[in-house]
Design goal:
single chain, 193 residues, mainly alpha, Four Helix Bundle (Hemerythrin (Met), subunit A), globular
Length: 193
């Protein structure tokens, strides 16, 4: 296993650590004595895990450590960390009004399921499915991370609904773009038969 892949595995393992810290922080809020030390540990774990994505990508590109396992584990670790953050900040209170709306979490999960099913369908008809990230998908991830940071940090005294709306726009937009890409690939496959 390459160093880049080990870093990706480390990021994957950070997700349950963040989840446990989020639960403990939520419990401290319910008890009426918010333990801000636990919150900052959770934020720290999430930030370190997020930054590791740039580190493993840099190492893989600049030290020729690209591998099939790395191509699988890197996006899996990214999605696991992001989904863990969003789900736990939906169901675990981080203060009055400081949570992610459940409808956004349902939308994000539905989008990801549709993309996974689409990839499976494309793979069924054509064994080679090139995964090409669209710029809207990258912006979608950025806005989702912005939403997570907004809720976790509680620095800006405005409701999380504002970054939620922004993340919703790009979640829907990127879902439509990936759906269009999938239809295009499916049409190309049928035309070549």
């Amino acid at each position: 296993m390459t160093l880049a892949s080990k870093i990706s595995v480390g990021r994957l393992l950070c997700a349950p650590v963040f989840a446990v810290l989020a639960i403990y922080y939520g419990e401290s809020i319910k008890a009426g004595q918010a333990n801000e030390t636990i919150r900052w540990w959770a934020v720290g774990v999430f930030i370190v895990a997020s930054l590791s994505d740039f580190v493993d990508g840099y190492i893989a590109r600049h030290f020729n450590q690209r591998s099939k396992f790395g191509a699988f584990i890197d996006p899996m670790a990214d999605k696991t960390l992001l989904l863990t953050g969003i789900v736990f900040l939906t169901f675990i209170p981080w203060g009055e009004g400081w949570h992610i709306p459940i409808w956004f979490t349902a939308l994000m999960i539905a989008r990801d399921i549709i993309i996974i099913v689409g990839i499976w369908i494309l793979h069924y008809f054509n064994s080679h499915v090139p995964i090409k990230p669209h710029w809207s998908g990258k912006v979608c991830t950025f806005t989702q991370m912005l939403l997570l940071g907004w809720v976790m940090l509680k620095v800006i005294p405005f409701s999380p609904i504002y970054p939620t709306i922004l993340a919703t726009i790009f979640t829907i937009w990127s879902g439509i773009e990936y759906f269009r890409q999938g239809l295009h690939m499916l049409n190309e496959h049928h035309q070549t038969e």
